[in-house]
Amino acid sequence: MDGEIEYLIAFSVNDAAGRGMAISLANMAKCEDVTHRSRDPKIRALHLCDDLRAVLAGFDEDVVFFDFIEEFRDVKYFVILSRHSSLTGMPTLTTHVPGNPWGKNDFGGKPWEIPPANPVLMWYFLKGLINRRARDGLLEFRVSYEVTHHGPTSITRPITFIEIGSSEREWNMLNVQRAVASVVIEGIENTLDGGSTKLCTVSIGFGGPHYAPLFTRRAIEYGECYGHIIPNYVIKELDLDRIKFITVRAIESTPGVERIVIEKVKSEIRKAIATIAEERNIEVISY
Questions:
Q1: Torsion angles phi and psi, residue 40, rounded to 5
Q2: pLDDT grade for 262, boundaries at 50, 70 and 90
Q3: Residues in Cβ contact with 137 at an 8 Å cutoff, skipping those fewer than 6 apart
Q4: Residue 75 Cα distances to 22, 53, 117, 157, 222, angstroms
Q5: What's the pLDDT tens digit per position in 78-94?
Q6: Residues 6+ apart with CB under 8 A from 96
Q7: Which cofactor does it need (predicted)?
Q8: Terminal-residue alpha carbon distance, the chain
Q9: Distance from C-alpha of 120 to C-alpha of 54, rounded to nearest angstrom
């Protein structure tokens, strides 16, 4: 590969959605299959994608247990291609940061641990998914951010999930896999060589439900690119000291954050978040 590798794009070979996106991406980006050259026993599929400055790698493990990708020291960023599951089964296309911003780790990772976000890439992914939904007639799909949740968490470089949900039907739709793969390619291309500088306001969200409708809307209408989003169902479980702790962690794990948007939380919680933000010259918008 000419030049520096910047991205590891990872997926589980046992995940129909992730595997399908990876196959489409490898074909569309003309990636070279080098699986036979890999000496890592964890790797089940390996491609070099020169134009994306990326390695595309498949593993047996479920993506929420991908903490071991931290061992890939020569890359700057991680992108995870994944299925999305929900009880409603609503067709969904999402992007988010992993992490456990509370004392639970029911779906991988460690409690109280959140890795660095890649807000600008997530913003490109969100906009790309919205455009593809319209362009490709995927109107049954909801497109949104998701809040910070699940593993892996023991990651020290920016990591981004992009997902197809929410049932086997959607996971296996080839046209959707191709559409999302194209979004990944375009998003990465847009961030190479510093092309993403100052196109959006790096932001953090507090409050709201799991699919973050307010923050999704503001991302498009106001050019806010979100990193970590801490939802109400987490906030309600935390005392004030833990609120302060996770606010600091979210700020530290959202590189370049300029704004915090708070949606309908108790006034003492809003004040605690705002005080920490203002001490760091971060703008606060409250609803």
A1: -90, 120
A2: very high
A3: none
A4: 18, 9, 15, 9, 31
A5: 999 999 988 888 999 99
A6: 122, 145, 146, 147, 148, 149, 160, 161, 163, 229
A7: Zn(2+)
A8: 48
A9: 17
| Interatomic CA distance for residues 94 and 164, integer angstroms | 7
Cis before 166? omega within 30: yes
Residue 20 is encoded by which pair of tokens? 């399908």
Residues 191 and 27: their CA atoms lie apart, in Å, by 21
Specify the residue for token string 């456990």.
100
Token duo for residue 12:
């589980």
Residue range 220-239, pLDDT digits in tens: 999 999 999 999 999 999 99
Chain centroid, CA 150 distance in Å? 11
Per DSSP, the residues of 96-109 read: E---B-SS--TTSS
Question: Residue 59 and residue 63: Cα distance in Å, rounded?
Answer: 9
**How many whole angstroms separate alpha carbon 192 and alpha carbon 204?**
23
The full set of domains in the chain, from first to last, is: 7-194 (3.40.630.50), 201-286 (3.40.50.10700)
For 5-20, the pLDDT digits (tens) are 999 999 999 999 999 9
What 223-226 contacts at long range (C-beta under 8 Å, 24+ apart), as own/partner pairs, is: 223/199, 224/123, 224/200, 224/259, 224/261, 225/119, 225/120, 225/122, 225/123, 225/199, 225/200, 225/201, 226/117, 226/119, 226/122, 226/123, 226/145
